[in-house]
Amino acid sequence: MKMDNFFDNNRILKTVWKWKFHIGIAVFIAIIASAIISGPAFITPKFKSTARIYPTNIAEVSEESTSEHLLEYLQSTDIRFKLIDNFKLYDVYEVNPEGKFYKAYILDEYRRHVEYKKTDFETIEISVLDEDPVRARDMVDSLIVFLNDAIHREKAIINYELADVAKKELSVKKAEIDSVETLIDNIRDETGLIDYFAQATTATRGLMDAAAMGGDKGPAQKTINNLVNKGTELRRSLELLEDFEVKADTLRKRYEKYYNRAANNISYSKIVEHPFVADKKAHPIRWLIVFLAALGTGIISIITVSLIDYIRELKSTL
């Protein structure tokens, strides 16, 4: 008998038919056993809660998209351990916090129960698997809050620094304004000049009227003399003051913008799909376990009985 006969379809079909009751009993036992083992007595049911968020108020960094930026934050150790500590997940996952490899074990359990992924629509999907459906929902909600807090802390540091720079520049500009205003006040007190162009026009007209009518030229001439001596300085000082005030206003607005960004609690993620308390378990998938057990048992049984018959046939030919 050739070895190729072992893979002969007709021989295998005959063998299956011959051992059909044995194979059926084995598959039936596998179905019953897998149904029992996959039940709550052996495997704790777990529920999944999911949310989808979209990044907002975040600028793209080099080649990294805003969605990828959110993923970087979510995968940070700080957020992971904040969730672990807030929900006492070391008790939930039965990991000793005083153990030698606590961080490795707890993070491994975390990765098995908490998942983040980027969708095709640039949103981030956050999923939590837990035996308590309410806790699963609360963990997803907390992750979104922790994510916003983490981004806000980083942005706040930068914005406070920028606000501080603007504040210092504003202080310097205010000192320059005070200096120019003092100079203008001194010129006005000394000369009586208020408005360069208006007083130049008025004094010139007064001087011409006095000359034409034989009036007193003194007041008009005095104003013109003051305009000649101090007018240019006053005009330039007024222009400089106006320029300084415009720059000071720009710095003031810049300071307020950065300070408000740092002080206000800005949201960096828009919730597209809110998490909810699941009413149906997500793990284990009982029908799949039963199906795979039955399929695997059936295949193994067929191979086994085929091998038994094949060996018997070989022995009978010797």
Could you characterize the architecture of this molecule?
The chain is an alpha+beta fold. Among the domains are: 78 residues, no CATH class; 105 residues. It is 69% helix and 8% strand. It has ten helices and four strands. The protein has a four-stranded antiparallel beta sheet. α1 crosses α10, α7 runs antiparallel to α9 and α8 packs antiparallel against α9.
Secondary-structure map with pairings?
Elements (H helix, E strand, L loop, with lengths): L8 H10 L1 H18 L9 E9 L10 H9 L2 H10 L2 H4 L9 H12 E5 L5 E7 L2 H59 L4 H18 L4 H46 L5 E5 L12 H32 L1
Antiparallel strand pairs: 1-3, 1-4, 2-3
Total helical segments: 10
Structural class: alpha+beta
The biggest sheet amounts to:
4 strands, antiparallel
Ends: how far apart?
10 Å
Shape designation:
rod-shaped
Strand content: 5-15%
Looking at how many chains there are and whether they match, the oligomeric state comes to: single chain
Give the low-confidence spans. 207-212
**What is the N-to-C order of secondary-structure elements (H for helix, E for strand)?**
HHEHHHHEEHHHEH
Report Rg.
42 Å
Q: On the 0-100 scale, what is the average pLDDT?
A: 80
Q: What share of the residues lie within helices?
A: 55-70%
Count of strand segments: 4
Write out the strand line-up for the largest beta sheet, numbering strands in chain order.
2-3-1-4
Brief account:
The chain has 318 residues and is α+β, with helices and mostly antiparallel strands.
Keywords:
318 residues, alpha+beta, 4-stranded antiparallel β-sheet, 10 helices, 4 strands, 69% helix, 8% strand, rod-shaped
